[in-house]
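Predict structure. Input: Membrane protein, 623 residues.
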Amino acid sequence: MQSLDTVFQKKGLTEQFLYNVYSYLPAPGQTWDGDNSKSIPWILCADEAFNVEPNGVNNFCNNIFTANNEEFMKWKRYYEGIRNASIFIKRAPECKELNTIQLREYIGEAQFLKAYFYFELMKQYGPVCLVPEDGFTLEQPIEEILITRNSWDECVDYVNNLLQEAAQKLPDERPSSDFGKPTSGAALAARSRLLLYSASPLFNGNTSYADFKDKKTGINYINQIKDESKWAIAVLAAKEVINKGKYKLMNVPKDEKTPELPKNVISDPDFYNQYPNGAAGIDHYLSYANMFNGAVSGSKNTEIIFAMPGIGIDQYCAPNKMRGYSSYNVTQKLVDAYYMINGKTIEEGGSDPDYPYTTEKSSSSTNFSGYILPSGVYGWYLNREMRFYATIGFNRSYYIGSSSPRSAYKNFEAEFHSGGNCTDAVSGTWMTDRFRYCMTGYLCRKFQHSEDVFGGSYYGSVKPKVWIDYRLAEIYLNYVEALNELTGSHTIGEQTVSRDPSEIKKYFNMIRYRAGLPGITLSDADNVEKVRQLIRKERQIELAWEGHRYFDVRRWKIAIEEENDNVTGMAVNKKEDDGFYRVVQVKEVAYAYKRFSSRKNFWPIPQTEITKNTNIIQNPGWE
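Output follows.
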């Protein structure tokens, strides 16, 4: 093994050290327990998904997780990444074979990674311990090594400064060969999310944590007085990313296969204008679907701010019949959240004769934007917005699987009902056992391309994909949310910020128009509570299955309402025309429910860490 003195004398070894720091990044598209060191559970722990297999995800969802569980515990791993990033930042200047520009950029990368690891710790555990820049030495007294947790605000300030420094050093753009490395925009996007979270009710004046404090100093880990200026700071952080002008919402021009916009959308006078000033001129299905399914390479996706090569979730969301696992199911709750094609909710859908929310099945097959909607599809799944079709696999969804040389694995309608072609009762179905079938009647197809067939080249191939960690649509939603929460005018540095309905309308509507939906009016934008609820619903839909929902319901302090229910879906134990189309509780396994208590705002710090350092206070409820 090379000594550090040797490593930082050679350019190649110095670069290898930095590459090793990257290895501590999580695999966000990987959510299973198999590789516990990299996988993360946020999608499956939220109310948008259900994992049919018994493991640590469901233990957490069911509130029977303890501080002695090992699944998904990232405390040690991320601190190892922080330590190595700190070593690199301190010692990389010793490498004289690096020129000034290379050294500056590499240090910026290490600062970004260090901030990333800290932020991941904070998202999972709340306030954490900020380690001294130079680490510890064997000569230091034990009381200096056994550090305590810092307050949330101290952690935010530290990580925010790291990201600002990184943004100054990192390039604005990278060649495709460097895909997966951060840019200045990535650092600023991470700031936007960090500061939005910090302004949110969970972390801003949350008196529920009045007794959560350092046992020696008595300092509260979560501040007890709401500070509205934090929303103003979050506004400016998001706008800084937007003002860079480096990113734009991905859109695909319309062609002859693009469906017409809905008729009689009279609530929005701008709706039929050309995108982005209206919804016309683009293909709304492909503009959303192609962002995730591999149709466009990550380096050419104009919306991506930071992403990582590779994705592992797609096979777990695919039907058994195409050699998927069917393990990760969509909940009825998410299915019902999507709008009708005219922008109405499903509750309002029955009031529109052109686009009803009905129980009547489709009488003919339609093909739009390369998406096939077969005849016989139940009315609940007709006339829905394009993000619904890009995301949700429902009974009789059509899977093309064009890469397969074998007819058995392509061009089929998925049947999730009893006796169907994607259930455990079908002889010969790929990897069937009592857990490997769809128990809600819904799978996520967001990360699947029409070519995809799993199981190896003999069966077909899978389109290469990337996991998008930060994208522009999130930044727009961050921006309008923070703007909406301002009640007064705030001067931050040399900039003054106040609530601006025209800005809220502009950036919110760009997302809605890209989806082919009517936008909000200035009158809507004037209503703070209405906009708040619209933004929460839009994040639920636009960012579905991207790892946001878990944190959103917590930071808004609504998890007690949203994550305290049984998992529901279709009656998959019934035949299609004999009771399948009913919303029922999933009873195929005993753990198909989610229970939230306030302790689940944060994960428990591993008991092994508490035992090693008795100065670390355990998170409330996990003692």
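The chain is about 35% helix and 10% strand.
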